[in-house]
Amino acid sequence: MEQNESDRGMERHPGNRVVVVDESSILDRLSGEIRDNLEKEFSKEEAAARKQQGAGEKTEESGAQDTEPRYRVVNVMWEILRHTDVVKTMKKLGMCTCGQCRAEVLARCLSALPSKYVAAREDSAAASVTLYEYRYSTSVRTALLQACEEVRAHPCHSGQQG
Domain limits at 76? Predict the structure, then answer.
């Protein structure tokens, strides 16, 4: 039975009116589409900025300056997690801290958290993240502990490393 794109993540039971929805595959598809769209938009903006910068270089030669601030997309959850001592948490829980386990913990943690992106000026991105850090730090720590427990219970390798 071939599935079309709208049926992916759904299991139909013939003769019944029951449809089982695998939310994770639907969410994975949606998050992939969002990421792809953001990357396309970002690429367009970068191309426009490069084109404009090329024009700006010409005007700078004539004495004018380009004072427009530059912006970037910031993954708030990643920035908060990046400033959390993941290895210390893993050690406290008595688990392996090898690169593979650290990467698995980070991936599981980010997958469990809601996506939160902001557009921030390049010179003040840290300030933008700080605004959200207080609001989401408890969620990030909770997801980190859950991810650590999952990896500790089902390590990606045999034996204790790290």
Answer: 70-162
